[in-house]
Amino acid sequence: MAMANLARRKAYFLTRNVTTSHTDALRFSFSLSRGFASSGSDENDVVVIGGGPGGYVAAIKAAQLGLKTTCIEKRGALGGTCLNVGCIPSKALLHSSHMYHEAKHAFAHHGIKLASVEVDLPAMLAQKDNAVKNLTRGIEGLFKKNKVTYVKGYGKFLSPNEVSVETIDGDNTVVKGKHIIVATGSDVKSLPGITIDEKKIVSSTGALSLSEVPKKLIVIGAGYIGLEMGSVWGRLGSEVTVVEFAGDIVPSMDGEIRKQFQRSLEKQKMKFMLKTKVVSVDASGDGVKLTVEPAEGGDQTTLEADVVLVSAGRTPFTSGLDLEKIGVETDKGGRILVNERFSTNVSGVYAIGDVIPGPMLAHKAEEDGVACVEFIAGKHGHVDYDKVPGVVYTHPEVASVGKTEEQLKKDGVSYRVGKFPFMANSRAKAIDNAEGLVKILADKETDKILGVHIMSPNAGELIHEAVLAINYDASSEDIARVCHAHPTMSEALKEAAMATYDKPIHI
């Protein structure tokens, strides 16, 4: 069986990449000189508009492949939304707030007694800001190391090979490139009739820098971002109410996991108003008043809060790029249309990350960036959006990859389910953190793993064994027969795999 699996994985590795013909390879010929220029005015092999996870990774990879590369970033700090006002600062606050919550509610159970515990919000926010600052500087260091030219300013197309940049110093320069990659990311999706002032009505950006802990916080939208930021302020003392138009939180999540996840959040005193429509928001007084009604119509009610977080999703950011000037096609949602090589309909212009269809995730954008540049360089590139993991960084975390049970039923796929609760995991019990489970979905005939869903502490770390397994078409038996260290949380994944194709040991 082991030899058969090895042969299968080798065959998959050889066939999963898109083949590049000899003609295609000849089409991409470049000068390998790539000095660290003081300006982006000379012609580049690659120009990247946007310095977020997709953009800066694409720029570094292009330089590593020997291509003269310039990256244009309007913010003046690399890392994009993710590093500056998204993924990184939110995880810093999630960790800090969790430490406070543990100190206040769990330490005594472990024999650690404290006279008092209080929040020093300015210090907490400073720690978050320092983390961001160090990481952005780190990317600048990587640019210098790889000889990527960095232009700070707002870029827009003059032609398919020219970008006009209004620099943050007030100057204007033109950056020329044989291949231009649009990697401008996404922005907060606004709601009709709601004006975000980043004080009382905030986006995720404003929610990262509140000057004090609000007594009452209302979150509009029960997606990843809303639940994470709601968790931060809830742990610090806010009374949190989540208002969601849909009937479920995180609609993309596996249904069984979602129900357990919502119960967990409710135990943390987070309140939910599902199937509820926001009619109006009034911030004229000291606080904020929300008028809401049932999504299907009915009597209106008024909610009051100190702060309202608008977290209704994100939208592609392409404003001011002058895409229409060069004829780049977009869909109705404003996303740039690309082919399997990330090429737009305009020769020499490419797009990656949140501005194109697919999951709006930083790690997906990074993979887009690498694959796009590999194609430009005449090499192989590959990203499978069906195998991109997703994580909600609350406590417990929820992580998943592949199909949900609802998707398999809809597609008419015959499958088996294996589950294992962390209540039966020795490491989880030893550290008194045993909430959650692992759920594996596998093809009924072949045992090929189709989806894995984990709710647990550090689920975002545990999921990657499953991501690797799914990428190599592994079976649940493959995971079950791999020796896992004891005692570890990852043993729960092994036991769930055993439950999928046979029987688990410890339950």
UniProtKB/TrEMBL annotation:
Q: Where is the Pyridine nucleotide-disulphide oxidoreductase dimerisation domain?
A: 388-497
**Binding residues for FAD:** K91, G155, T184, G185, S186, D354, M360, L361, A362, H363
What does the record note about the cofactor? Binds 1 FAD per subunit.
Please give the Pfam families that the UniProt record associates with this protein: Pyr_redox_2 (PF07992), Pyr_redox_dim (PF02852)
Residues forming the catalytic site: H486 (proton acceptor)
Question: FAD/NAD(P)-binding domain spans which residues?
Answer: 45-369
Question: Gene Ontology cellular component?
Answer: mitochondrial matrix; mitochondrion; oxoglutarate dehydrogenase complex
What EC number(s) does its UniProt record assign? 1.8.1.4
What SUPFAM superfamilies does the record point to? FAD/NAD(P)-binding domain, FAD/NAD-linked reductases, dimerisation (C-terminal) domain
Localisation per UniProt entry: Mitochondrion matrix
**What residues does NAD(+) bind to?**
G221, A222, G223, Y224, I225, G226, L227, E228, E244, G313
Q: For this UniProt record, give its keywords in alphabetical order, as a comma-separated list.
A: Disulfide bond, FAD, Flavoprotein, NAD, Nucleotide-binding, Oxidoreductase, Redox-active center
Q: Which GO terms describe its molecular function?
A: dihydrolipoyl dehydrogenase (NADH) activity; flavin adenine dinucleotide binding
Which NCBIfam families did the record assign?
lipoamide_DH (TIGR01350)
Q: Whom does it interact with, and what assembly results? A: Homodimer. Part of both the glycine cleavage system composed of four proteins: P, T, L and H and of the pyruvate dehydrogenase complex containing multiple copies of three enzymatic components: pyruvate dehydrogenase (E1), dihydrolipoamide acetyltransferase (E2) and lipoamide dehydrogenase (E3).
Give the record's family classification.
Belongs to the class-I pyridine nucleotide-disulfide oxidoreductase family.
The protein depicted here goes by the name Dihydrolipoyl dehydrogenase
Species the sequence originates in: Brassica campestris (Field mustard)
